[in-house]
Amino acid sequence: MRPRVLLLAGLEPTGRAGLLADVAAVRARGGDAVAVPTAQTAQGTHTFAVVPAAPRMLTAQVTAAREWGPLHAVKWGVVPGPSQLAAAKATLKGLDAWWVVDPVVRSSRGQPLSRLSPRHYLALAGPRVVVTPNLEEAGWLLGRPAPASVEDAQEAAEALCQRGFGVVLVKGGHLPEGQGLADVLGLEGRTLVMRGRRLKRPPERRGTGCRLASALAAELGRGTGPEAAVRAAREHVTRYLRTGRD
Ligand SMILES: Cc1ncc(COP(=O)(O)O)c(N)n1
After folding, report:
1. Domain count for the chain
2. 180 alpha carbon to ligand 1 midpoint, in Å?
3. How far apart are CA 149 and CA 187, in angstroms?
4. For residue 185, what is the enclosing H or E element?
5. Cα–Cα distances in Å, from 165 out to 10, 18, 40, 91, 126?
6. Range of the domain at 63
């Protein structure tokens, strides 16, 4: 089965991160991508700009895509503000599909990409909603300091499950040296520590969070169970970090 995945994300024209990275990951996983830009961005070494999409256009693009066929999964990347969030949510009402929510509010260089608050993200929770925060985002969502150990990350995953997310993946790529590298998966009332090896990455290999969430959405859309889908998505990102290709 070829999953058709809706990507709601910011357009970063070089494709290092954002919507074009999402499209590459979905296609590499054998899916069809429906790419709806929630914002235009420019992210250079000295240049930075974000212009949110017109909510009416977002509604029209998602509606038009649904007229052509079913959506099997939705990946939420950058949502610049409440009006884009409301437009997308209203248009997806009644859709029976997995959602993967990547709560990215800042670029890895620290630039602001969204005005959403934790409460906006927590309102997206549901049994078929996966949230994929990194450590900083997990702390931000819960209103507490960022997890600094694997145990803290497990607690954060449990707390986010309790807030109603069916699946939580806390990405531990920035755990302190000595903690090793581990992602924590929370689902069905338990947490699973998924160890990994720290890979050196050239600075242009960005958008790992985008790729992880998109590959995960493609797998879930195909009908892969959450745990196997997370494993496949992690392998996708490891391969991307090694090779620079999806
Ligand atoms: C449009 C957009 N979406 C997501 C990211 C996060 O990616 P990264 O963490 O690599 O900066 C980004 N920089 N820009």
Report:
1. 1
2. 24
3. 19
4. strand 181-187
5. 23, 23, 29, 21, 5
6. 4-243
Classify the C-alpha dihedral 155-156-162-165 as positive or negative.
negative
Helix ranges (H only) for the chain are 19-28, 55-67, 82-91, 118-122, 135-142, 150-162, 208-222, 226-243
Q: Which stretches of the chain score pLDDT less than 50?
A: none
Ligand 1 pocket list (CB less than 6 A): 9-10, 12, 17-18, 41, 43, 77-78, 104, 107-108, 113, 206-207, 209-210
pLDDT digits (tens, 9 = 90+) for 153-210: 999 999 999 999 999 999 998 888 777 789 999 999 999 999 988 777 777 888 899 9
Note the pLDDT tens digit of each residue in 90-103.
999 999 999 999 99
**Residue with tokens 């689902």, as numbered in its chain:** 187
The torsion region of residue 15 among left (phi > 0), alpha (psi -120 to 50) and beta comes to left
The DSSP call for residue 175 is: P
Q: Are the beta carbons of 216 and 132 closer than 8 angstroms? A: yes
CATH assignment of the domain containing 189: 3.40.1190.20
Q: What is the ipTM of this complex?
A: 0.95
